[in-house]
Amino acid sequence: MRIIKPYLFVIVTFAAFTACGTDSSSDDIDAGEFVVSFEMLVPVSQQPNGTFNVTNGRFIAYFTERQNISQYELRVVQEDQTKGEPFIYHLQQLQGPPGENLRYFVVIGSSRTYSGVNEARKNEIVEEFQQELEESKHLYHLLEVKPLRE
Length: 150
Hints:
3-stranded antiparallel beta sheet, 33% strand
């Protein structure tokens, strides 16, 4: 019995501390602000004839949809922790293909698409776009996401 009492005390104390300050509603827990990293992406698709389509580079941040949330306040954080102005996106603006996470992306430069290029040219274009992304990487470090209730 002597051994059981200290363990029981530790378990009860741990349970009491972890329960303090939390809401039992999972919706409220899911609604908290969070931060996700940006990834660099150069979209490439191969066509049935063996050629490639390449679209210019972008920074993309993925995050999981929160229950009962229809809009999100987003804020870009630079590598030096400078924060941009907040902006609001509706759920529909952040959705990708069915079954995927929500996503926010920033295209670097004007929209450019190269269609029907061979593999060697595809590799050159991807390298050029990746260089553009590297030069802008310090501007798109993190994305602060704040779910908003209506």
